[in-house]
Design a protein that fits this description.
Layout lengths: L1 H29 L4 E3 L6 H14 L16 E7 L3 H10 L18 H5 L1 H9 L10 E10 L11 E13 L2 E11 L5 E12 L25 E7 L5 H5 L7 H10 L9 H16 L8 E7 L7 E10 L10 E8 L7 E6 L1
Parallel strand pairs: 1-2
Antiparallel strand pairs: 2-4, 3-6, 3-8, 4-5, 5-6, 7-9, 8-11, 9-10, 10-11
Helix pairs in contact: 1-2, 2-5
Keywords: Membrane, Transmembrane, Transmembrane helix
């Protein structure tokens, strides 16, 4: 019996050493470099430990000083390959359909590369030189552009990069711009997205806290507006796909409340943008989002789930009497309400 116990203790010790090496020491060493390969990246377990540690020791809405002389926060991952299973889950959750990637003449969804960057985003947020608390960051704006069809990423290995551009102190707290980019196997830029995240001052009320100059002016309701109504159910598989899009494990804490019917959970901002682009493509054709294209979005009120939403889109012109369309405006609203969850524009 003593021999069996010794074997068990030895096995447990060996497993502990292995787990510490793989998930902690190895990940700690990998974060010391800014250029990694897709086969050697820090584990999510270690990144979550760093996330919690940094969230506990820092206050939201405060811009801290960089801890080292290396002020730039940037991470690059080489030799990336497209994960078909992740792409299928994304397409199914975002309203494209599970068979979307295999449909003829259809490009990979414009928002999908951000899902590929989810680990890189987490690495940036827990970096010692990231000057904000990683907890409670809210997406307020996003600009996205494709220089080539996103399908270029299916043709071979590609490179992903996430870097911090700048910080801005505003009345509501501190904003940070983070650039995500994907480069093809030929080293030519394919996709780029700039996220503006807000770290709110605790004295501010819950909400997007947009200043007057940030709000888009009200546009007259056009005659050619198209409206699509959608149901947002409680169990859409959102969190399994978008778990790092909101940069917080808050969804785990909201599970008990959701069991009692409370609408405490909000839809990720990336999902709202993705489902709008999916519906626009279905009704306007794939040509409206064919590269090169620019998409800008302003996120306002959070969307509680479950619920119903209305997606509106219309051609935007400088002069109604003449002038061709200058782009396509779109808006996401709760069903039967004038409140706006998100407003955006597609242009070339």
């Amino acid at each position: 019996m003593g021999t069996e116990q010794s074997y068990i203790v030895a096995s447990l010790s060996l497993c502990s050493v292995y787990l510490v090496y793989v998930h902690i020491y190895r990940s700690w060493k990998l974060l010391k470099t800014n250029v990694l390969s897709d086969e050697n990246v820090p584990s999510f377990a270690y990144l979550y430990i760093k996330y919690v540690t940094k969230a506990v020791t820092r206050r939201t809405g405060v811009l801290y000083t960089a801890t080292t002389k290396k002020h730039q926060v940037v991470y690059t991952v080489l030799n990336c390959r497209l994960e078909t299973s992740v792409l299928r889950r994304f397409c199914s959750a975002a309203g494209y359909g599970w068979d979307y990637p295999d449909t003829e003449y259809r490009d990979i969804p414009l928002c999908f590369p951000e899902i590929l960057c989810r680990r890189l985003l987490l690495m940036v947020l827990v970096d010692e030189n990231f000057r904000l608390s990683p907890a409670g960051l809210v997406r307020v704006r996003q600009s996205l552009k494709t220089l080539q069809p996103v399908d270029e990423l299916k043709k071979g290995q590609f490179t992903l990069q996430v870097r911090v551009l700048e910080y801005r102190q505003i009345d509501a707290g501190v904003e940070v711009d983070i650039c995500l980019s994907a480069t093809s196997r030929t080293r030519s830029p394919v996709w780029e997205s700039v996220l503006t995240l807000l770290s709110k001052n605790k004295l501010q009320k819950v909400g997007r806290c947009l200043s007057k100059n940030e709000r888009q002016p009200d546009e007259p309701v056009p005659e050619n507006v198209k409206q699509i109504e959608l149901r947002v159910p409680r169990t859409t598989g959102l969190q399994c796909v978008w778990s790092f899009s909101d940069y917080s494990p808050y969804w785990l804490l909201s599970l008990p409340a959701s069991l009692f019917g409370c609408r405490s959970h909000t839809a990720p901002s990336l999902w709202m943008l993705s489902v709008c682009l999916a519906e626009i493509e279905k009704h306007k054709g794939v040509g409206v989002i064919t590269a090169p294209i620019n998409v800008t979005a302003q996120f306002e009120e959070p969307l509680l789930v479950p619920g119903r939403v209305a997606i509106k889109f219309w051609e935007k012109t400088k002069n109604r009497s003449q002038s061709p369309a200058q782009g396509l405006s779109f808006q996401l609203q709760p069903h039967g309400s004038d409140i706006s969850h998100m407003m955006g524009l597609i242009s070339r």
